[in-house]
């Protein structure tokens, strides 16, 4: 591939290593013309299988767009949405499958969205999981309450600082 600094049409691979989980390869390259170095990352492309059976390339942009409406009026920034889309992509990639069902993407969004903003999470879940009664909301809200209790209990057990910063 061409050099991103001087656009020289060729580059030389000087090092290449596979990520710990085996899902990507990073290559360190050097330009033979300006001698600057840069890194490329190679991953399998991820496809989304839509309900119609058609496939399209996975897009973080689409994830952010899909969640943005649920976040209206909430303290959620564009950076938060970009980070959420990144987390969704990472969790889908760890499944190891190159083709993902559109439905699974909705599921993968719910976890990180709940961490980001619980109101946006309830809005998104109510559409995605087709809530059709108050009971559905009550169930989701009790789930959140139970989680709050669990995380408060967890804080009490947390270790009080690390003593292992050896000199
Ligand atoms: Zn160059």
Q: Can you describe this structure?
A:
This protein has 167 residues and is α+β, with helices and mostly antiparallel strands. Helix content is 46%, strand content 18%. It has a three-stranded antiparallel β-sheet with strand order 1-2-3, with no helix packed on it. Strand 1 (12-18) and strand 2 form a beta hairpin. The longest helix is centred in the last third of the chain and has 24 residues, at 134-157. The termini are far apart.
Radius of gyration: 21 Å
Characterize the quaternary organization of these chains: single chain
**Separate helix tally:** 5
| Associated small molecules | zinc ion
Class based on secondary structure composition and strand pairing:
alpha+beta
State the end-to-end CA separation.
Answer: 45 Å
Shape: elongated
Percent helix: 40-55%
Strands, count: 6
Biggest sheet architecture: 3 strands, antiparallel
Q: Could you list the spans in which at least 5 consecutive residues all have pLDDT below 50?
A: none
Note the topology:
Blueprint: E1 12-18, E2 24-30, E3 37-43, E4 47-49, E5 55-57, H1 60-68, H2 78-94, E6 99-101, H3 102-116, H4 118-128, H5 134-157
Parallel strand pairs: 4-6
Antiparallel strand pairs: 1-2, 2-3, 4-5
Helix pairs in contact: 1-2, 2-3, 3-4
The protein binds zinc ion (ZN).
Zinc ion binds next to loops.
Protein name: Transcriptional repressor NrdR
InterPro entries: ATP-cone_dom, NrdR-like_N, RNR_NrdR-like
Keywords: ATP-binding, DNA-binding, Metal-binding, Nucleotide-binding, Repressor, Transcription, Transcription regulation, Zinc, Zinc-finger
């Amino acid at each position: 591939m061409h050099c991103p600094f001087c656009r020289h049409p060729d580059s030389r691979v000087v090092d290449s290593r596979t990520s710990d989980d085996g899902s990507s390869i990073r290559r360190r390259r050097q330009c033979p013309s300006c001698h600057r170095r840069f890194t490329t990352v190679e991953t399998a492309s991820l496809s989304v299988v839509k309900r119609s059976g058609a496939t399209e390339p996975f897009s973080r942009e689409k994830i952010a767009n899909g969640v943005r409406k649920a976040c209206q009026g909430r303290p959620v920034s564009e950076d938060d949405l970009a980070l959420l889309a990144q987390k969704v992509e990472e969790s889908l990639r760890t499944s190891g499958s190159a083709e993902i069902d559109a439905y699974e993407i909705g599921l993968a969004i719910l976890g990180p969205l709940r961490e980001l903003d619980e109101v946006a999470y309830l809005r998104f879940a109510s559409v995605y999981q087709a809530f059709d009664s108050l009971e559905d909301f009550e169930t989701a809200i009790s789930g959140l309450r139970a989680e709050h209790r669990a995380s408060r209990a967890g804080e009490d057990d947390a270790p009080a600082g690390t003593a292992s910063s050896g000199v």
